[in-house]
Amino acid sequence: MATFVLIPGAWLGAWAWEDTARALRERGHAALPITLTGLGERADAAGPDVDLETHIRDITGFVVDQDLRDVTLVAHSYAAVPVTAAAGRLGSRLARVIYLDSAPFAEGTGLLDVMPEEIVDQLRELAAEDGDGWQLPLPPFDVIAAFSSLDGLDEERRELMRARSTPQPFRTFEQRLTGADEPGPDVDRVVVACNDAKALLDAGVPVLDFLNQPPWRHFHLPTGHWPMLSMPLELADTLDAVVSSGR
């Protein structure tokens, strides 16, 4: 059985994984959702100094402090950025990295670099007006829909997300990835793509072409960008299938 360390995307905490984590445990796995600094129940640790490196240390520190081995890191959305670095720092502790509707980031890039310029401008304005310039509240859903699919999020799930989200320390979006080493060659590399990401992979978008080459493996969930909320049990089934199928 696998040891899953589940890292949520922007604005979310460990709470977002509750249903998926429960289902994974019922299948015999260890499922360990974590909350990154400044988010969820750790919102009181937020501050202008919380940045990408803070979240990289959160992930690596959690694995090392718990003395975890044969770890499967699951990175949803924004978490792909710190996980890209953490995966290279965990050495033999890491068995597998799963990018959930996300992908590893290239050296020298950050989350804002992969967003349309007009969306970046809106996010900067929101952070300046409602976040004292250093934190980013969850944007309105019509803004989110411009860069992330809301498929599967009914009104109840949107309200849950709105009610339980916490502002994202904006430096984590602004800071670019540096010093990220590739994980070892024996680490299993997997993408679990939801609808929009699958369409990009199927279309052979050049910047993502490496994901269509070995050693990368693909799985698909027919939903939008937040499968832990829209299809939590199906997500658990898929993660179970990933580790059951091996490389």
UniProtKB/TrEMBL annotation:
It comes from the Bacteria. One of its GO terms (molecular function) is catalytic activity. InterPro entries: AB_hydrolase_1, AB_hydrolase_fold, Sec-Metab_Biosynth_Hydrolase. Gene3D superfamilies: alpha/beta hydrolase. Residues 4-237 form the AB hydrolase-1 domain. It holds the Pfam family Abhydrolase_6. PANTHER family: AB HYDROLASE-1 DOMAIN-CONTAINING PROTEIN-RELATED, ESTERASE_LIPASE_THIOESTERASE DOMAIN-CONTAINING PROTEIN. This is AB hydrolase-1 domain-containing protein. It comes from Streptomyces tubercidicus.
